[in-house]
Structure formats: structure tokens, C-alpha cells
């Protein structure tokens, strides 16, 4: 018997209620996700269930999607997925509802005389190609650009990189992962010579202690956090929350330690000081597998246009490093950081205990940092000094924010300096990519052009005249946003935006292309633990919407690159993935064949001899190790990881008499990034309908502000007004405020600062000076 529309609505309502209860329960210590998701599914429902990764964050949970009559009507956690083991967070439980918002984009729109006019897909693609040709002819190939996303599928990003770098011949390719994961990339590269974590989620099942470095894991990665809580129930593990603000993670942790913004650099050095002072160094490991270096300091904050920085590493000795750490005694650092001497020694004692396996976990708190590369290096220093690395349960682990920030940005190489297997600066890498792409090697420029912040500055200046934006919403996410919004609107700019819903970014577009979303097309994502996951097309996209991959292919053909883009529409994903694997055809980064990805819930690279490599650089697990030792950090020429001498340096902008508070921004559990999808899900929107500003209760009392009162925030970039939140979900430290960025009606990034880490070029969204007043 066919299910009626009323039945489906009833079913979705039941699903929403059950999943909201289950996910909410996970936020409190000692309560696991319940198996409530099955309760809303009628026993006699005739659903076709298919597997895939969740559409949202970088955890990469496996989900099963139930379809009926051409619609996705149910979703549940995939019990076969080793990532989430059948669990989902509140966003995952509701993910399919994001497909069916009332204002879904279904047809191309072209701006004519200031108004958007519905047009055919062919006409829109013809216009895009002609504008690209015109721009290149008038202003040169570096006047065109593409800005993508960690939400791009692997084929999307690969097609973009091949078209722009290989065919057109410009390195104007960037992705929004520059705003969230670039410091993790440069941290890995500078310390180990290769990107991405050496461990995997299975480390959670082996670790004795978890140190969360500025990471509100309970809300940002709730499924993984539930696994930590589960291990505490089973094995009594310790969870330490090291943060600038009290959150749900803090209340669930065994110990919460607050530090002043930016001083995590000093505390990490103090932990290393304690490890050396107390004789906790794993001397054999350090002597065999580590070297010591220092780089340039006082390197600025990237605030000026065309800012450039090149580090100059210099080898130092272990004795030099120990002398440097004398400035970072717990007593000195306590005065700077606000962390007690006792708490510094407490954290150091766990790292230093040879009988405790320690997992360090972080995300934006470390990465969105004007010294983001440095703080990544410093946490690696702790693990390297103690030899607690590349072993089950001993793992420094960078978590990811987007479903394919690793797979599509870091692995495919959709950043200005990157190629799928290397960097544009390397002649051999360019020749290797050119051969696979079927283009002359000289097509690929040898110099990077613009990282994300500088790309939008170039658009403002007029150096870039054409920008294609896919699967991201920079008119909400860019720091110092007003400059870049105004710049995109200037005369002589042509903006194409591919998306599924209207956003502030589609508002600036000259052409809007409707995209197929997630399971409306075929693709792959790559998650935080190097796991590549495949999903098939399960339902049809609405109207004329097509995948971002096929949009790029169609424009490439119109530009005359049929030879480089010979793919057939019905098989192009398989063809692209097969071609892409050639870039990683080596023992250090081999990708699993498509048939493997189709048959199981993903595979971790390097995939060698039919097996995922769970722990890299450890000869017991990693077949790429070849030095005859237990460990081999083969990303570096000498096979050794680097312990970096990195000092504390202040933030780009600190509170003063005029702007006496710190402003911090971030996310909430209900919404994902800018909320363009999750705000279309009624239960999530109702649970968190608008942004707010958290204040410390003492600050609120002094200013006579209570929850719901209007508060005006003013920085050197402008001001916004929004409601206060006192003693609700999170509590900032005194003289600090926190604002989530999901609300397009309250654009907090209008007033944030576009300073960035000079090495990674990732902006610092966590620290700028603000004045707080009752409005």
C-alpha cells in the first residue's frame, strides 16, 4: 500500500521528535545516544535503504537513507560504519529535511537590469563561459577565479582544479577550508612533511586521557564526544577541557581549565618545560626520530593587502631548545595565561606519564589563530617529546569542520599552492599533474596567486574580475565582511554562485546556478581520519539543478577543453575518481578503488594491499615505513619529525580602554556553519532561531543586562545589535563575549578582523577587541 503525503508528514514529525530527544540527551555527561531513531519509522514502511556519509560536519558519520516514491523520507545511523557505529547527532538525524525547503533554487537565474530573470541551464552556462573568455581576453587569465568548499565532493574539487590550473592556467583556486583547516595543514607539513592525522578515530578506544585544546566537542563533534563519554563509563578515562569559555564540553569533562585568549602558545611551551624538567622525555624516541628547528618570529598578522611571508627554518640543538623553554616555567606562564601553576603541572603530568596514553583533540580554537601553525606545532612537540604518537591511543588529532575539507581540499589540492599530489612550486609535481590532465606542463603556473582573504581583496581591488563561488557562503563567513561584500558589488565584477538555497552570497551574484545536493547526485567525501566515503544518487534533484561537477564540465567544454573533459554524464564520477587515483598511486597515499568504497563504509588511505593504514609512520602498521626502525617520519628527507621552537606572541588586536572586551565567534549544535541548510529544517530553526551574545554574569550584572536584552557590540570595523544570553548554554570568562555566526540576519563577521596566520593564511575568528553596551 502506498504511503500518503499525510503519512509521510506524520512520519517526519515523529522522526524529528525522536531524534531531537536522542541528540539532546547526548549533550550531558554519562548519557549516550539512545536508539530512538527507529521509533519513528513505521514497521510496514516499504523503504529502500542506501548508505552514505552524512552531509554535514567532518566527522563523516555513516547514515542510511530511506527513500520511497522518489523522495528521501527517513534517515538513521549506519550500524556498519566504524565512525559513528549507528549513532547520529541532531543535524544528522534531520539531514534529509534539508533537501526540501520551500525556497529551494530550481532554475538558473541571470541578473538583467538589476533583476533576476529565470533562464535555461544551457543559456546560463553559455553566459558563464563567454564571460570567462571575455575576462581572460581583456584582463588576463589571473583575472578569473573559483572559490569552493570543504563541502565540495572529491569530483567537484578535482574538476575545478583541473579546469583552472591545468587548462586555463591560473592558480586562482581556493576553498573555504582555508578559513578553518589551513593551520592544521601547515602544522602537519612543518612538523612531519605530510598533511593529515597519523591516527584515526579508533584511538578513542585506546586512549586513557583526552585533552581538548579549545574545542567544544560536545556541540561541534557530538558523535565523537559521545564515544569519549562511553569510554569514560567503560574504562574510567579522563577528559580535560582546556578552553577560553565554559561550554557543554566543560560541564561534561572531568576537569575544565580556562586560559586567556592567545596564551595557549605559552601553556604548551610550559608543558614541554615540565616534561623536560621532570625527566619525562622519551630520550630514545627523540634521539632516533626527531630534530629541532626554529623559524622567524614577530612576523606580522597579514592585515595589509599583498602581505607576503616566507619562513626561514634554522636547525637548533636540543640544548638550544631547552634554554628557550626557560622563559616558559609554569610560574611565568601562569601570570600570563591565567592558568594556575597546579593546572599546568596537572596537564603535563598526564602527557609525561609513560603508563598513560593521551589523545589531544582540537579544531577551530587552535586553527583560527594568528599563530595557528605555531600552536599546532607546539602540541606536536608535546607528543614527540614523550614519544606518544602514531600508536593506538597516543594521538595528536586535528578534527575537521566540513564533510570533505580533508578529501576535497587537502587531498585534491584546491588551494592556490596545491596540486592533487603536491605543490605548484615543484616542477616535477607540475609535470606529473599535467601528464594526467593531458595539458602542457607550462600551462600550470609555478607560483601561487591568492589565498582566500587575499583573493577577496583582489576582487575588491579589481585584480580579479570574475569569480565562481560553489557550495559556500562567503558573504556570511568572510572576516571584516563589509569590505568584501562591497568589493564584490563593484562595477566590472562578474560573480557566479552555485548553491541550493538563496543566501547573502547569491544576493551579489550575476548568475545563480541551482545545484544538486548531496544524495541528489553521486560523489565522495573524505573525513577527518583520512576515510574516503562514497554515496550514490538516491533521488532526483529538483527542476534544472545539476551537480557542481557537471556544471564545471559543461563550462569546460564550452571553453574548448573537450579533450581534457571527455567524461560521459552517466559515468563521469567513476571516470573522474579513476583518474584522480592516479595522482596518489603510491604506498604513502594510495586511495581505495571505487568498488571498495561502494561495498563498505569508506576506507582510510593509504589503502595498501587491500587494507586501510590506520596509523601512519609506525612500521607495525604502515607499509610505507622503510628505514628499518619502529617509526619513520618519511615526509621529511631525513625521516625525522621536527620539534619547533615557537614563542608566545600576542594577538593582532587586544582589548584596550576603548574596546575592553575580547570577541569570540563559533558554532552551535543545531546549525551547521552559516545555517543555509539547517535553518530550512523547522525543528532545528525553532530550537535555535537567531544568534545571541553570551556575556559573563558579572559583566552583565555590572551593565544591568539580562537575557534577551539588546546588546550593542562595536569594533573598529563597525557595530551590530543582538540579544543577550546570560548563564544559558555557554559562559565566557569575564571581559569576554561569544557570538555564533549561523544567522545571516545578524552578521557578526561585519565586525571581525581579517588578521591571519602568516604561514597558513587562516584568519583568526576567535580574538579581536570589542566594546559591549546595553542598547
TrEMBL record:
SUPFAM superfamilies: ADC-like, Formate dehydrogenase/DMSO reductase, domains 1-3. It catalyses: 2 Fe(II)-[cytochrome] + nitrate + 2 H(+) = 2 Fe(III)-[cytochrome] + nitrite + H2O. It is found in: Secreted. [4Fe-4S] cluster binds at residues 54, 57, 61, 89. Mo-bis(molybdopterin guanine dinucleotide) binds at residues 91, 151, 176, 180, 262-264, 364, 368, 473, 498-499, 548, 665-674, 749, 766. InterPro entries: Asp_de-COase-like_dom_sf, CT_Nitrate-R-NapA-like, MoPterin_dinucl-bd_dom, Mopterin_OxRdtase, Mopterin_OxRdtase_4Fe-4S_dom, Periplasm_NO3_reductase_lsu, Prok_molybdopt-oxidoreductase, TAT_signal. Its EC number is 1.9.6.1. Substrate binds at residue 741. Residues 1-34 form the signal peptide. It is an enzyme of class 1 (oxidoreductase). Catalytic subunit of the nitrate reductase complex NapAB. Receives electrons from NapB and catalyzes the reduction of nitrate to nitrite. Belongs to the prokaryotic molybdopterin-containing oxidoreductase family. NasA/NapA/NarB subfamily. Component of the nitrate reductase NapAB complex composed of NapA and NapB. This is Nitrate reductase.
Amino acid at each position: 500500500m502506498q504511503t500518503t503525503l499525510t503519512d509521510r508528514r506524520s512520519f517526519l514529525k515523529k522522526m524529528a521528535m525522536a531524534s531531537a530527544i536522542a541528540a539532546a540527551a547526548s549533550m550531558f555527561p554519562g548519557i549516550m545516544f539512545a536508539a530512538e531513531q527507529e521509533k519513528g519509522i513505521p514497521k510496514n514502511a516499504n523503504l529502500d535503504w542506501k548508505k552514505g556519509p552524512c552531509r554535514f560536519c567532518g566527522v563523516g558519520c555513516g547514515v542510511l537513507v530511506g527513500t520511497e516514491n522518489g523522495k528521501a523520507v527517513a534517515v538513521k545511523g549506519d550500524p556498519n560504519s566504524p565512525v559513528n557505529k549507528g549513532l547520529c547527532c541532531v543535524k544528522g538525524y534531520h539531514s534529509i529535511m534539508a533537501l526540501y525547503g520551500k525556497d529551494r533554487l530550481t532554475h538558473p537565474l541571470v541578473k538583467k537590469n538589476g533583476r533576476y530573470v529565470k533562464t535555461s541551464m544551457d543559456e546560463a552556462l553559455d553566459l558563464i563561459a563567454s564571460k570567462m573568455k571575455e575576462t581572460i581576453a581583456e584582463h588576463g587569465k589571473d583575472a578569473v577565479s573559483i572559490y569552493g568548499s570543504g563541502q565540495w565532493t572529491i569530483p567537484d574539487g578535482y574538476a575545478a582544479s583541473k579546469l583552472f590550473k591545468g587548462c586555463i592556467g591560473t592558480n586562482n583556486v581556493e576553498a573555504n577550508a582555508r578559513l578553518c583547516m589551513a593551520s592544521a595543514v601547515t602544522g602537519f607539513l612543518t612538523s612531519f612533511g605530510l598533511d593529515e592525522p597519523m591516527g584515526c578515530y579508533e584511538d578513542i578506544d585506546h586512549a586513557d586521557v583526552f585533552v581538548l585544546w579549545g574545542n567544544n566537542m560536545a556541540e561541534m563533534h557530538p558523535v565523537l564526544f559521545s564515544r569519549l563519554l562511553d569510554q569514560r563509563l567503560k574504562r574510567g578515562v579522563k577528559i580535560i577541557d582546556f578552553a577560553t569559555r565554559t561550554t557543554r564540553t566543560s560541564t561534561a569533562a572531568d576537569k575544565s581549565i580556562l586560559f586567556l585568549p592567545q596564551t595557549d602558545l605559552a601553556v604548551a611551551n610550559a608543558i614541554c618545560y615540565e616534561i623536560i624538567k621532570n625527566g619525562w622525555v622519551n630520550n630514545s624516541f627523540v634521539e632516533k626520530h626527531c630534530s629541532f628547528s626554529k623559524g622567524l618570529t614577530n612576523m606580522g598578522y597579514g592585515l595589509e593587502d599583498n602581505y607576503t611571508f616566507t619562513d626561514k627554518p634554522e636547525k637548533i640543538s636540543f640544548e638550544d631548545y631547552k634554554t628557550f623553554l626557560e622563559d616558559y616555567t609554569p610560574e611565568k606562564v601562569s601570570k600570563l595565561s591565567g592558568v594556575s601553576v597546579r593546572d599546568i603541572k596537572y596537564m603535563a603530568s598526564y602527557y609525561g606519564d609513560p603508563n598513560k596514553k593521551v589523545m589531544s583533540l582540537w579544531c577551530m580554537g587552535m586553527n583560527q589563530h594568528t599563530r595557528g601553525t605555531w600552536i599546532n606545532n607546539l602540541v606536536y612537540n608535546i607528543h614527540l617529546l614523550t614519544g606518544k604518537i602514531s600508536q593506538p591511543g597516543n594521538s595528536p588529532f586535528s578534527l575537521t569542520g566540513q564533510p570533505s575539507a580533508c578529501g576535497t581540499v587537502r587531498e585534491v589540492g584546491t588551494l592556490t599552492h596545491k596540486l592533487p599530489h603536491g605543490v605548484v612550486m615543484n616542477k616535477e609535481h607540475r609535470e606529473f599533474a599535467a601528464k594526467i590532465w593531458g595539458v602542457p606542463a607550462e600551462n600550470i603556473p609555478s607560483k601561487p596567486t591568492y589565498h582566500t582573504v587575499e583573493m577577496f581583496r583582489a576582487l575588491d581591488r579589481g585584480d580579479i574580475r570574475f569569480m565562481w563561488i560553489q557550495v559556500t557562503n562567503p558573504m556570511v563567513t568572510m572576516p571584516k565582511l563589509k569590505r568584501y561584500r562591497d568589493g564584490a558589488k563593484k562595477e566590472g565584477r562578474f560573480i557566479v554562485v552555485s548553491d541550493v538555497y538563496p543566501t547573502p552570497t547569491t544576493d551579489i551574484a550575476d548568475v545563480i546556478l541551482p545545484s544538486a545536493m548531496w544524495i541528489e547526485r553521486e560523489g565522495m567525501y573524505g573525513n577527518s581520519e583520512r576515510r574516503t566515503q562514497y554515496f550514490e544518487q538516491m533521488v532526483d534533484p529538483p527542476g534544472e539543478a545539476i551537480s557542481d561537477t557537471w556544471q564545471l564540465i559543461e563550462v569546460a567544454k564550452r571553453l574548448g577543453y573537450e579533450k581534457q573533459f571527455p567524461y560521459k554524464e552517466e559515468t563521469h564520477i567513476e571516470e573522474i575518481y579513476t583518474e584522480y587515483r592516479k595522482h596518489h598511486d603510491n604506498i604513502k597515499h594510495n586511495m581505495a578503488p571505487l568498488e571498495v568504497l561502494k561495498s563498505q563504509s569508506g576506507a582510510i588511505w593509504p589503502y595498501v594491499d587491500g587494507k586501510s593504514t590506520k596509523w601512519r609512520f609506525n612500521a607495525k602498521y604502515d607499509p610505507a615505513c622503510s628505514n628499518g626502525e619502529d617509526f619513520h617520519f618519511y615526509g621529511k628527507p631525513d625521516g625525522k619529525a621536527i620539534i619547533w621552537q615557537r614563542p608566545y606572541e600576542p594577538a593582532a588586536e587586544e582589548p584596550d580602554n576603548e574596546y575592553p572586551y575580547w570577541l569570540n565567534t563559533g558554532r552551535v549544535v543545531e546549525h551547521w556553519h552559516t545555517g543555509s541548510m539547517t535553518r530550512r529544517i523547522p525543528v532545528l530553526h525553532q530550537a535555535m532561531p537567531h544568534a545571541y551574545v553570551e556575556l559573563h554574569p558579572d559583566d552583565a550584572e555590572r551593565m544591568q543586562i539580562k537575557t534577551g536584552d539588546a546588546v550593542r557590540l562595536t569594533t573598529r570595523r563597525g557595530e551590530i545589535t543582538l540579544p543577550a544570553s546570560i548563564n544559558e548554554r555557554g559562559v565566557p570568562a569575564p571581559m569576554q563575549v561569544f557570538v555564533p555566526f549561523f544567522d545571516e540576519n545578524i552578521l557578526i563577521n561585519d565586525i571581525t578582523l581579517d588578521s591571519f596566520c602568516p604561514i597558513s593564511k587562516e584568519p583568526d575568528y576567535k580574538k579581536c577587541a570589542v566594546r559591549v553596551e546595553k542598547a
